[in-house]
Every structure is written in C-alpha cells, then in structure tokens.
C-alpha cells in the first residue's frame, strides 16, 4: 500500500468516478428501455417471482449509490454499498451460468455486447475496485472528506487568483 500512498486520494477519486459512471449509465439504460428490462428480469429463472420489484429497485439503488459518491462524507458508505451490489450481481451471474438451464439477456447499452462470462469478469473487476477504494479510504484520516465532488479530484485544478 506504500506504493499508493502519494496518490491515494486520486486513486480513490478515480474509483468513485468509475462507479458513478457505471451506475448512472446502467440505471439510465434500464429506465430508458424499462419495458425491455422488466421483461428480461421476469424471464430470469432466479428472479421471476420478484421481477416487478427488482426492475424498479435495481436502477433506483444504482442512482442512490451514484449520488452518495458526490457527498464526501458518504463515499465510504457508497463504496461498501457498491461492493455489496456488485457482489450480488456477480453471484447472480455465477448462479445463472452454472445452475440455470435458461440464461436470459438482461443487459443494455454497451454491456449488452458482452457475453455472460465477460460480464462476470467485468463485475469481479469492479468488486476489486470497491475493495481497493475501501482499503485506501479507511486508512486515510479524513475518510474522503477533502473534496466536495468526486470529479474535482480527477480533473486538473487551475489555481486562478482573483485580485
């Protein structure tokens, strides 16, 4: 972790920004083509009985978590929520791939181009990103409260003095 120390805040901010992009994109894709998403969730052998709830709950949770990243004091909680959600998504994909006779297509947008195995590895990558972010943020003394917006840590800051 000493390798990350000088860049800890930037690494955490980039991880947070990646989750914001992922969750906003995924939620908007689901909501913009809600009917398709609802049907696909309903076709899932694992989620059939709760498909109606899941089709609203998942994009809602994704948007709430994305918003939490913008509030500095909620970043650690947002990383834990992201980790939980990504572990659930990953477990769902693993179960469908290994124990289901029918594998529905339930992704939209860019992610629709990925197969289930690629999607599994994509999710595992985000699980690791969440864990890295949690470890780095928990070890910091300010718990991510130094900047008001995630993007401000990623974009260059021009210090312009007004006289």
TrEMBL record:
Q: Name one GO biological process term.
A: methylamine metabolic process
Quote the subcellular location field of this record: Membrane
Pfam families tied to this protein:
MauE (PF07291)
The Methylamine utilisation protein MauE domain sits at 9-135
* Keyword RNA-binding recorded: no
Does the entry feature the keyword rRNA processing, yes or no? no
- Recorded protein name is Methylamine utilisation protein MauE domain-containing protein
């Amino acid at each position: 972790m000493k390798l990350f120390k000088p860049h800890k805040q930037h690494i955490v901010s980039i991880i947070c920004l990646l989750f914001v992009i992922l969750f906003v994109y995924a939620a908007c894709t689901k909501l913009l083509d809600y009917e398709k998403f609802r049907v696909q969730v309903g076709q899932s052998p694992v989620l059939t009985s709760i498909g109606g709830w899941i089709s609203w709950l998942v994009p809602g949770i994704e948007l709430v978590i994305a918003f939490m990243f913008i509030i500095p004091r909620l970043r650690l909680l947002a990383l834990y929520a992201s980790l939980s959600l990504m572990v659930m998504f990953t477990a769902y994909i693993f179960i469908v791939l290994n124990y289901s006779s029918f594998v529905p297509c339930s992704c939209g947008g860019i992610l629709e181009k990925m197969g289930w195995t690629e999607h599994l590895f994509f999710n595992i990558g985000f699980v690791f990103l969440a864990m890295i972010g949690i470890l780095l943020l928990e070890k910091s003394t300010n718990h991510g409260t130094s900047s008001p917006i995630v993007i401000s840590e990623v974009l260059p800051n021009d210090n312009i003095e007004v006289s």
